[in-house]
UniProtKB/TrEMBL annotation:
Family affiliation: Belongs to the cytochrome P450 family.
Name of protein: Cytochrome P450
Species per Swiss-Prot/TrEMBL record: Arcella intermedia
Gene Ontology MF, one: oxidoreductase activity, acting on paired donors, with incorporation or reduction of molecular oxygen
Keyword set includes Protein transport: no
Residues binding heme: 252
Keywords: Heme, Iron, Metal-binding, Monooxygenase, Oxidoreductase
Cofactor needs: heme
Pfam families on file: p450
Length: 300
């Protein structure tokens, strides 16, 4: 969350030191209380004057107001000093003359992609590193080779050149997809797909898990194997079934941010620790939130 605050707003939220109030608390409350089965089926319920819904609207208003304050501040800084562009997302979007509503909506998307889903993905990565020490050592060895035994700073070009790191990240998202279903769409007309008739206005969504665990596609989907992503082994069908960030014009705008965040985290983790181990007698407990499933790393 702190990295997200710096990259989006140019502000360190200091959440690692326990500062979880203000926009962070409001965002987390909205995220975990607005995406519920009941509200998804009956969204108009939020209009009822019930305490939980009144609190939800209050938190939404607070977070929205915070975002608008940041946007307005970025616009003032741009107007007062056009040549001094701050290195954060809000300033970048504002300086490109996008509509204010577009800037606000993109902030929300980056919060979701850069925090909740990425955090869950990294929790699974830690769990896998602990269960597959040989993979951990291969990954760490690649870091050592690229940075001369961690003696030189890691660069963005280094990240792009680390094949095994890229394979590990992709296999982690395949093996433990944090989001199981892509956002639903509604058919605009009657359709027939593979002999299945879909009437107009049918709700359609893609079950990612079923594709990533399909034996006819992957052969051994229950085996964790980062090297399956080696281009010499990867099939066209496997590549097309890999949709952790969706696909096409509606692909997640925070995809590249999330991928870089994951890779930098793994580098920092294995720079500091030569191995990752589970606590004796540890049993992985899955924490279910409104949109993702994640292991409870506090019990690992």
């Amino acid at each position: 969350m702190d990295a997200l605050g710096v990259c989006i707003f140019g502000k360190d939220f200091d959440s690692l030191n326990g500062n979880l109030e203000g926009p962070i608390e409001a965002y987390n409350y909205v995220l975990h209380n607005s995406i519920t089965p009941l509200l998804m089926m009956f969204p108009s319920l939020v209009k009822l004057p019930l305490p939980r819904y009144l609190e939800l609207k209050r938190k939404m208003k607070y977070f929205d107001s915070y975002c608008w304050d940041i946007i307005n501040q970025a616009k003032k800084e741009r107007d007062s000093n056009p040549t001094d562009q701050k290195p954060n997302l809000v300033s970048l979007l504002v300086n490109n003359d996008l509509e204010d509503n577009v800037v606000r909506d993109n902030i929300g998307v980056f919060f979701l992609a850069g925090h909740e889903t990425t955090a869950a993905t990294l929790n699974w990565a830690i769990y896998l590193l602990a269960n597959y020490p040989q993979v951990t050592q291969k990954l760490r060895q690649e870091f050592i080779q690229k940075t001369q035994n961690f003696s030189v700073p890691l660069t963005f070009e280094d990240l792009k050149d680390m094949n095994y790191l890229d394979w590990f990240v992709k296999e982690n998202m395949r093996f433990y997809p944090t989001v199981s279903v892509l956002t639903e769409r509604w058919t605009s007309s009657d359709l027939v797909i593979n002999d299945w008739f879909l009437p107009k206005h049918t709700s359609v969504s893609i079950n990612i898990v079923s594709m990533l665990k399909d034996k006819s596609i992957w052969g051994d989907p229950e085996v964790f194997d980062p090297e399956r992503w080696n281009p010499t082994r990867l099939t066209k069908e496997q590549r097309e079934c890999n949709l952790p960030f969706s696909y096409g014009p509606r692909i997640c705008i925070g995809m590249n941010f999330s991928l870089v965040e994951q890779k930098v985290f793994l580098y920092c983790l294995l720079k500091k620790f030569s191995s990752v181990k589970l606590a004796p007698g540890c049993v992985c407990e899955v924490v279910k939130s409104s949109i993702v499933h994640s292991p409870d790393v506090s019990k690992l």
